Amino acid sequence: MRLSRSLAPVTVAAALVLCAPYDAVSHARVDASAAPFGAECRTRVHGSHVVADCHNPYADTDRVRLHVECARWWDLDTDGAPVEAGPAETVRLTGRCWMEVGRAWVSHEKV
User: Fold this and answer.
1) Contacts of 12 (CB under 8 A, 6+ apart)
2) Angle at the Cα of 43 (from 37 to 45), degrees rounded to 5?
3) How far apart, in whole angstroms, are the C-alpha atoms of residue 57 and residue 39?
4) C or N: which end of the chain has fewer Cβ atoms within 10 Å?
5) Residue 57 and residue 36: Cα distance in Å, rounded?
6) What is the distance between the alpha carbons of residues 94 and 53, in angstroms, rounded to a whole number?
């Protein structure tokens, strides 16, 4: 079976692209200035109290903030004050509800 004249160049081009060495294939660009960021936070809930310990292993300062959502509808949810965790620094964030804690999380902001 013979390929038509209009289909032959397309077939050859596709074969060349598929057989190209790995180094010849274009790669997605990665921004070299995009360094890893963000403190690692461990959050513990004990009754109505929340404690989050955040350690920042990176060179950039991370502004962390504890958010506590209470389980009862009448209990006030809280957003703690932002605390700066510098390079190789560990900070402790605390919060509480009057009754049970529904959920708690830490937000991060680059300084």
Assistant:
1) none
2) 165
3) 7
4) N
5) 9
6) 9
List the one residue out of 80, 89, 30, 82 whose CA is nearest residue 59. Answer: 89
Angle at 103 between CA 99 and CA 104, to 5 degrees: 105
Q: Concatenated DSSP letters for 85-109?
A: E-TTEEEEEEEE-SS-EEEEEEEEE
Please state, in angstroms and rounded to a whole number, the distance separating the CA atoms of residues 102 and 74. 12
Among residues 35, 98, 106, the alpha carbon closest in space to that of 65 is found at 106
Write out pLDDT tens, residues 21-75.
544 444 445 455 677 899 999 999 999 999 999 999 999 999 999 999 999 999 9
